[in-house]
Amino acid sequence: MNLRWIMSYRRGPHGNANLTVSLAFASLLAAPTCAFSKDEYGAVAVGMWRNLNSANVWASTGSGSSRSSAGDAALAQCNSNSTNCQVVLTWGSGYCGFVTTGKSQDGSGRVGYGTGQSKQEAYDTCMSAAANMACDANPIGFCLSPPEPKRDPVAEFTEKSAANGRQLFAEGEEHWNAGDYEAAQEAFSDAATDLMLGDEKEMSDLANAWERRSFCAQEGISIAKPDHIGFYDTIEQNLADKADWECESHMPGWTQWVKDAAYEHGGEATAWCSSDTVGSSLDCVREPSQSSSGNYEIALNPECTAGHYMVAVGVFDEDKRCRKQVVDIYASMSRSSAPFQSKYPPVIIDAIGTDEKGDKFDSLQDCYRDRHQYYRYLCPKSKQLD
Description:
The protein is 35% helix and 24% strand.
């Protein structure tokens, strides 16, 4: 490390060999003297001079964005307190620089300094420069923070995309658990894209799978809780219309999940028009009878005088599966206007009667049909054929 000395003026004007040595340090950096600087370079400047009976030394430090600016800062501090200043040490990011000064104890009047990358090194360098040296045990100086590693823009983009994708995936899970399948689908879709850009293909594939499940859940809800039901629609018909979506493969158990959700929702949505609420009229409906043409008709008992009856009838297909249809019978007609063409005799499931008219009648009729022809379209097990 740098070690510089000047010999003091050996004799004063009166021949006195005992010389006075002035030792001073710049106060540019406050304690602690090993604090890290955010600048990229550091420097030490030292000034030494003599006048009459004394030799003097002054050390200063400075920092800057370049070696020259750091040296200029150290020189400016030194020149404000000394003369003959020179930059004796510079260092860059990740390194340290320290300086201390001293004087000899043998009466020679020598002064000097020592520099190093640590306080101990600066002190040891100063002490070893000559015999009988006494150096300040508290060197001044500082360390520079290590330079930040240069970022690869591609790697940075990949890392950022992956992190964003994981965050979106977590948001998708939250939406799914809250039953907000539309928001879940959007989050999982965005997550899949970001995860693919983030080079996390396995998790991207998982996000894509959950995006499809979220889509199927939305479609399932639209079937289980439809905004509009066709006149003769059933859940199975609507499920068949969506078969090309392959939701059962994306969301195992999807079909049954939709049916269960529809049954539960339909029971709540149509409870107000059920026979338990309105009152059952099963006693007013006779068992279906077969006409000479082979078709089945449904008739009312003569003592029933309500203006209109709605009857849920179980009709069997070729595979003996029983599904409900709602038949309207007016008391004035006493029998159904549309005979059933069926290989097997139909069964009476439920019936209500009403004298309502106008909008109230229309609402009641729509509700009753929804209940028995859509939400709960299957016949009870007790009505199924063996």
